[in-house]
Write a structure and sequence with these properties.
With 251 residues, the protein is mostly helical. The chain contains 13 helices and two strands. The longest helix has 25 residues.
Length: 251
Amino acid sequence: MKKESTMADLGLGEAIEGLPLPSGRLHHVVAQRLATQIVSGDTPCGHVFPAEVEHAEMLGVSRSVLREAFRVLTAKGLVSSRPKAGTRINERRKWNLLDPDVLGWQIQCGASDEFLRDLFELRMVVEPQAAEMAAMRRDEGQLVDMANALDAMERFTLSTPKGRAADIRFHELVMEATRNEMLLALSNSISTAIASTTAIKQSRHGSPRDAMPEHQALYTQIADRNPRQARKAMITLIELAHSDTKIALKR
């Protein structure tokens, strides 16, 4: 018989009790804490949560808050509910792994070497092709916006929130310049991957090197409408970012 979750097991006490929250947002706190327990493996796949009334009471929240929290997790594939069977944690293969929240929760819980490998392989599959297409399809307005993003990235540096936001904006603009809705649908996942791995590097006392040169090189190839070189420049950028992340994690 599976062990039932307790408030202490789920780590919700400090997060909920006495925490000032915007009205109607408590279910997001509950969902996030439950999610981190799931993706970390502390609460394993196949686990069945207690009945709604009992579970809500254990967490010190209303049934409606708990219900909304589970709706969030269900939409992301982490759990599923069936009448009389309760709410069960799904196998990992059913999770929406490209969902930005699911990506963020996994990194928050500690990124394994395998997870980082998968993350950078995703970037390597998507972004070089996006860079090639952007070089062929970008317009002048997008080019100006890319240049502005790089200026802000250089001025504020990746050690600041503004600099990191500019970095994300640059990569988003590359995706937008593909003019491909299917690729653009992956933009949030790619942005989350970039933001998360950059945060890992900065949390380890700064990035081991200046990331501007390869960003500038990529911009130049896109500006010159050179698709093959844009692809190569993006590959170099991703390879160096992966190397930086691995170095940072060893510190």
